[in-house]
Amino acid sequence: MPTYLGNNDLGSRELFNQRVSYFFDGYSSTIAPIDMWNNKPFYGKLDPNGATIYPIERTLKRLNSAPDDNLFVLNFVADAFEDFRKHYIFTQQLDAKGSIFENLIPKKAYENPLLNWNDYMNSVFLVFKDSWLTSDKRDQKIISFRDYITEFEVFLREMGPILPITLTNYILSTQVSPLISGLIIELSDANHGDDLSKSLFYMKNKCFPCYVEAAQKYGFKVDKNAPWRLVADLKSPALLPYLNKYGLSFTSLFNMCYTKAYNTEINLIKNFLFESYSAFVGESPEVSIYKYYGRCKKTLQKIIPREKFNEQKINEQFPDHFWIGYYIQLLANETPNVITTKDILDLTSTSQTLIRKGLDETAYKLVFDSFNKTD
To answer: What is the reported pTM?
Structure first.
């Protein structure tokens, strides 16, 4: 097996050549891997209908074999991994001392996408507050909460495709690790971009074939581009007993173990805007406006206090049907040209009517379907 030298420090041409070589010839096992770079980038992030998903926390289970008590995956994945690990350690007879193949100790597992989103949104807020609003005196237009959210939407018209804030599109961005799926366990902290270490320390290790074979027996695939990463293969017959233990099947697990992002993200966005506006007003409770009066040839300063808001006031002035319209516009900013302006207006009107009738989930599903046309 040749050695591959691809890493992110190479020039673009050489990196491309090395990555192509690794793509075609780098993986050493005859057992098919999963390729989460090229073929399955959204594995575990989308349900069979194409909806962005994330795990329900009560379906997560701690990995007993991990020294870190905070490593979790979906319950059936945890059980399958612990059985795989025991089987591998018992049957593997080769000297694996000093490598990950010695004890198969988990180093990484589930990452909470909501915590990641919250950190990400704090950085978006700083860009909006410190760069966007300070440019062209835009901050002087912010007197009320309505002014604030209107200007924030204008900001996202410019930044939407590169700064997605809906959970649906944020989870699908390259900023979010596939670890959020609850289906993945990593046995090393190695650099995913270093093809040399993948070759030397993992795939050239004499224990690698046994490791891949044992993983398959328990329903796991090895990631082609990260051989220390084990991914639960939801369609593997070997995983069925572990699914059945929790009353799950391939069809039902997406409803029983996952939440659809479109069912929760409107409230997340609403809460973010309220909290970030409160922080903005707390930092700058007043706005100074300067106006030139030609007759008296004077520039006069006027100080205006910014509106203070609470959650009750927001709910009274901005009911649920308002927020679905705002959300539709954010989606349109993030995925331009998916639907027409007329379609946006029609979708907004229909979904707001559904919300007024208390048919929230129907409205959310309608919005999702409208932005995920396959024709």
So the answer is: 0.85
